[in-house]
Amino acid sequence: GAVISNYLINDCFGAASYLILIFLGVCSFRLMGIRQFCIWRWFIICSLLTIWISVFLAFVTINVSDSYIYWGGLHGYHVSTWLTSQVGYPGVWLLLVFTAICFLIYASSRTIIWIRSMLSFKKMRQSSVDKNNVDEGYFSDSVDKEGLHAATATGKQLLKSHQEDDDMFSDAVDNNDNEIKNDNQITLEYENPAPSAITAVSPLSGEEDVEEEESESYQSVEKEPYNPKLDLESYKFPTVDLMKYYDSEPTIDKGEQEANKNKIIKTLGSFGIGISSIRATVGPTVTLYEITPQQGIRISKIRGLESDLALSLSAMGIRIIAPIPGKGTIGIEVPNSKPKIVSGQSIIGSQKFQDSTYDLPIALGKTITNEVFMIDLCKMPHVLVAGATGQGKSVGLNTIIACLLYKKHPAELKFVLVDPKMVEFSIYSVIENHYLAELPEGGMPIITDVKKVVQTLQSLCIEMDNRYTLLMKAHVRNIKEYNAKFINRRLNPEKGHKFLPYIVVIIDEYGDLIMTAGKDIELPIARIAQKARAVGIHMIIATQRPTTNIITGTIKANFPARIAFRVTTAIDSRTILDRTGANQLIGRGDMLFLQGADPVRVQCAFIDTPEIERITQFIAEQQGYPTPYYLPEYIDENGGSSELGDVDMDKLDPLFEKAAHLLVSIQQGSTSKIQREFSIGYNRAGRIMDQLEKAGIVGPSEGSKAREVLFKDSLMLDEFLKNYL
Fold first, then answer.
1. 20 to 30 A Cα–Cα from 150, which one of 266, 292, 527, 678?
2. pTM for this structure?
3. Which pLDDT does position 223 carry in this prediction?
4. Which three-class secondary structure state does DSSP give residue 489?
5. 394: exposed, middle or buried (C-beta count within 10 Å: 0-12, 13-18, 19+)?
């Protein structure tokens, strides 16, 4: 240690060598995942600082003698000595100051803004001294009187022209706006604007609102209905032959059936329970034996014999249904000795699925009676999936996604896929521009980072609110009515109306997200689950830890449809289904679906990873949209949607200068004010606000409060913008 430190400090860069330790610390934070640093940027900054500090310390201490430590190291000593011999002491000082400013400009873009603000501040102080020589009292009185007469005349002229002639209306507004602007510029220089200038124009805003509401009775000149699939009119749905064929027809073993019947009758008879009839229904993995007990037999007595029947039949997962809903019989489900695989091809290729008219059809598998079991996600409207590891949960999610890919066009459906494990949904990244929705800043199409998950869920809440606003303006109650109205060209696209695709949010490993982010994840999910059904946003969340601290009462109340694969304990089964039963399943896709009173036992369809890969490749090879479906940008109230270093100041928004004048005139940094004033979306208004903050016109976000405006009048702002733009 002594040798290395002596070499670095005395023979190399002096005290600046400590920056090497700082750089190594940054690298260790990056490798441990504590914080994401840009390694190259830190390397350049530390390298430049090391050289500059070495030369600076050597130059300052060049005349210090009798010191064992070379503060600038031999590197700094030789460089400073050579520079002194070339340009002298004043030249070295100027060179050091110049290089320091250049480094600060590279390290932070706010350096130039700070220098400009200092220079403009001096000019403003000088101009304010000159203004004190003007007779303020007389001038302000005259301005007030002139402003009052001009504003009154303006208001009368505007109202009169609006009533008489529509063509003259626009000219009058333009001319009078210019007059009001000139008055405002004069009064801003010395006093606050006259209040009459504001109140005179206020009646127009109300009339514009009425016009906007009345414009919803819009009827396009186009007679042909709008086709949302026109952008990808050559798109072809995947074919069934992309999936593997399995022989899924159950084989009926008469000998096994007779043996099981006799064992059931014998076991129940040994406990004094007589059977009047028994018949069997063979399913893919389970056979249902329906028994009719004799008169006077209590059902609760039969329910308590599950373990005895399992012992007698030498079977795993005996499940007693007492009684079967809608029938006067009791069901005993016994696993088959040779179960059959329910293939995805047999489900998706079935006539029932192909002829389905559901809005979001999902074929989960086959029931005990070998019928294709289908649900409509729009009527669910959200699904909770739970099950132990390796019991078919991920295969079930792939089946749900595959069913939707086979039935819905990319213009009608978008997915938001959240995969904390990073490996389950990565295969769908190739269809990013066809079916996936993501945040505007881009990144990975499959969301794996917890921070991105929170931002995406909050963005979905904004999307939900925006859709409800469109529905309110269109005077409809749900997305189906809204899209029908838009297709029939009864909504004006110039008013922001557009065709709305369904959005299906699928979250795998929900328990891991709750353990990491907690309420930040649960609250937006609960909000979406409560309200988003009518606007076409549906959620499917899956977890392998069905405990009460993961699946809380809020989540259970808002997810009425449940899918339970095999779990280990009866407590977990009660957490998912509010009853036992999931702990008695046999695994490998065996599941219970609950919506309403009684669960239905279904053997989930099996779609393997190579099949999913062939389906996604088939879609990816076709023409897609130029970009994914972008969700609204989420702007965090506690600090913005992203770091200001990500704001591109080379591409300022066209409304940047107008927004700056607006905020300075009202002295209130409000994103919603920009949104309302210029009739733009919240995400664009948020980007303008970020640009204004980085330019130094408004201060940072203060939570729910409005931002501080750093310029007090338009003169200061004009001077700043003249130098800045």
1. 678
2. 0.61
3. 66
4. coil
5. buried
Q: Can you give the pLDDT at residue 63?
A: 66
Backbone angles phi, psi at 503, to 5 degrees: -120, 120
Instruction: Please give the helix or strand (H or E) that residue 693 lies within, else none.
Output: helix 682-695
pLDDT at 190 over 60: no
d(CA 644, CA 636): 13
Of 356, 355, 336, the residue nearest 249 (C-alpha): 336
172: three-class secondary structure by DSSP: helix
Dist. CA 540–CA 400, nearest whole Å: 10
| Residue with token string 């695994």 | 587
Domain range summary for the chain, segments of one domain joined by +: 2-114, 254-335, 344-623, 655-722
| H-type alpha helices, 7-109 | 18-32, 39-60, 73-107
Residue 365, number of CB atoms within 10 A of its CB: 28
Fold of 344-623: Rossmann fold (3.40.50)
Quick one: tokens of 441?
A: 């800043």
Q: Can you tell me which residue has the tokens 């130059």?
A: 59
Could you give the C-alpha distances from 464 to 50, 104, 142, 379, 525, in angstroms and in order? 52, 43, 52, 18, 12
Give residue-wise pLDDT tens across range 132-172: 444 444 333 443 444 434 434 444 443 344 444 444 434 44
Helix (H) / strand (E) element for 596: namely none
For residue 315, CA distances in Å to 236, 250, 585 come to 46, 18, 11
Q: How many residues does the chain have?
A: 725
What is the gyration radius of the CA atoms in the chain, in angstroms? Answer: 36
SS (H, E, C) 578-643: CCCCHHHCCCCCEEEEECCCCCEEEEECECCHHHHHHHHHHHHCCCCCCCCEECCCCCCCCCCCCC
Tell the residue number behind the tokens 């406990």, with chain if given: 271
Report in angstroms the alpha-carbon separations of 515 from 355, 458, 558. Answer: 42, 18, 20
Q: CATH number of the domain at 655-722, out of 1.10.10.10, 3.30.1490.100, 1.10.3720.10, 1.20.1600.10? A: 1.10.10.10
Q: What is the tens place of the pLDDT at every residue in 528-571?
A: 999 999 999 999 999 988 888 888 888 888 899 999 999 989 89
Contact between residue 615 and residue 242 where contact means Cβ atoms under 8 Å apart: yes
Q: Is the pLDDT of residue 369 over 90?
A: no
Question: Is the omega angle on the peptide bond into residue 381 within 30 degrees of 0, that is, cis?
Answer: yes
175 vs 23: which has the higher pLDDT: 23
Which residues are CB-neighbours of 295 under 8 A, at least 6 positions away?
Answer: none
Contacts of 397 (CB under 8 A, 6+ apart): 385, 424, 506, 508, 540, 542
- DSSP 8-state code for residue 532: G
Residue with tokens 């959005």: 503
On the question of pLDDT at 311 being above 70, the answer is: yes
Q: Which range is least confidently modeled, 64-73, 343-352, 437-446, 643-652? A: 643-652
- Residue 102 to residues 54, 112, 270, Cα–Cα distance (Å): 17, 10, 95
Nearest to 363 by CA among 377, 373, 371, 349: 373
Position 260 pLDDT exceeds 90: no
Q: CA 185, CA 191: separation in Å to the nearest integer?
A: 10
Task: For residues 97-103, give the mean pLDDT.
Answer: 83
Q: Note the CATH number of domain 254-335.
A: 3.30.980.40
User: Which range (102-106, 440-444, 459-463) has the least confidence?
Assistant: 440-444
Vertex 132: Cα angle to 128 and 135 (nearest 5):
140
Nearest alpha carbon to residue 654 among 627, 683, 691: 691
In what helix (H) or strand (E) does residue 509 lie, and over which residues does it extend? none
Expressed in angstroms, the distance from the first to the final Cα of the chain is 53
DSSP symbol at 405 = H
DSSP 333: E
Residue among 496, 491, 495 at smallest CA distance from 632: 496
- 84 vs 59: CA distance, rounded Å: 9
460 closest CA partner among 537, 551, 361: 537
And the tokens for 471?
């529905």
